[in-house]
Amino acid sequence: MKLLSAALVLAAWTLPAPAAEVLSNRKIWDQGAHNAFTDLVRHNGRWYCTFREGTAHARENGRIRVIESADGERWTSTALIEEGGIDLRDPKLSVTPGGELVLLAGGTTWDRDGKYVKKRTRVSFSKDGRVWKPFQPVARDEHWLWRVTWHEGKAWGVAYMGGGGSSGPRDGFLYSSSDGVRFELVHRFGLEGMSESTIRFGPGGEMIVLARFEAGDRSGRIGVSRPPYTEWQWHKIGERVGGPNFLVLPDGGMVAGTRFYGDKATTGVARMTPASYTRLLEFPSGGDTSYPGMVWHEGLLWFSYYSSHEGKTSIYLAKIKLP
């Protein structure tokens, strides 16, 4: 009997962990020539997805599309935003404490020969996702404020300089704002190669960052800090990330979405902690792909991303049940 009990215990320990289950995954938009760089938010009972439409990945005038859905199945366009001579890209959605939708985007200027001129982040607001106020510049020239997260009445985000056609080394800067327009510099990270970064907040108020790096071994990093967010602990995750996003779930766990690098590029989901990162699943994807939007809703992970694995670079939406 003791041998049988020991065998049962050993079998329980060696059983494979439950797998994440993709409940649905479908293309929701392909009307632009090149549809890419998504984000996703749920607001007032409706879904909003945003992305860039252009003719190629970069170096031409991109526009920002916003689409809306009541059920995540049927989507309609609510806005197409453009600026003459500006490549609008990497749009991000959030919601202010007062209930307004926020659209943050980078804006890059190229000359007639396709050479880089400058970039500046801008922000717009909307009450309904249809009528958007004119863009206002935020942060500083050459500081690309890539995504903001609202916490206790403030917007927090990491801006990075360098890359995207500009000269000079990459570095990251922590910004905060009470209104989403006037941002103050809180901290310069001084980390060579720091690039696209997402901020979230843990149950104890700690700030957590998942950051892309484009120097050295290019390993992504997870950073953790407590107020006033000027002293940081960093952990390399051991692999590259591209377009990184993550959520802190209601149980305190964390789940990330990003580009997986390897023999081919794919988009996938990973489990993470403040000091670890483990791949969980990858979606049908390939080629030009990644930049997910992520929302936790009614016990499921809703996940937008773009991919060119079916030929045309298009927008996809998946629903995932996590183990």
Q: What best-fitting shape do the alpha-carbon axes yield? A: globular
Whole-number mean pLDDT:
93
Provide the CATH topology: Neuraminidase
The main sheet orders its strands as 1-24-23-22
The Rg value, from CA coordinates, equals 20 Å
Which residues sit in consecutive blocks of at least 5 with pLDDT less than 50?
1-15
Please give the alpha-carbon distance between the first and last residues: 32 Å
Q: Profile the largest sheet.
A: 4 strands, antiparallel
Beta-strand percentage? over 45%
- Which CATH architecture? 6 Propeller
State the order of secondary-structure elements, H for helix, E for strand. Answer: HEEEEEEEEEEEEEEEEEEEEEEEE
Q: What's the number of helices?
A: 1
Brief characterization of the structure:
The protein has one helix at residues 2-14, and strands spanning 21-29, 34-43, 46-54, 63-69, 76-81, 87-95, 101-110, 116-126, 136-138, 144-151, 154-163, 166-177, 183-188, 194-201, 207-213, 221-225, 233-236, 245-248, 254-260, 266-273, 276-282, 290-297, 300-307, 314-321. It is mostly beta strands and 323 residues long.
What is the strand and helix layout of this fold?
Blueprint: H1 2-14, E1 21-29, E2 34-43, E3 46-54, E4 63-69, E5 76-81, E6 87-95, E7 101-110, E8 116-126, E9 136-138, E10 144-151, E11 154-163, E12 166-177, E13 183-188, E14 194-201, E15 207-213, E16 221-225, E17 233-236, E18 245-248, E19 254-260, E20 266-273, E21 276-282, E22 290-297, E23 300-307, E24 314-321
Antiparallel strand pairs: 1-24, 2-3, 3-4, 4-5, 6-7, 7-8, 8-9, 10-11, 11-12, 12-13, 14-15, 15-16, 16-17, 18-19, 19-20, 20-21, 22-23, 23-24
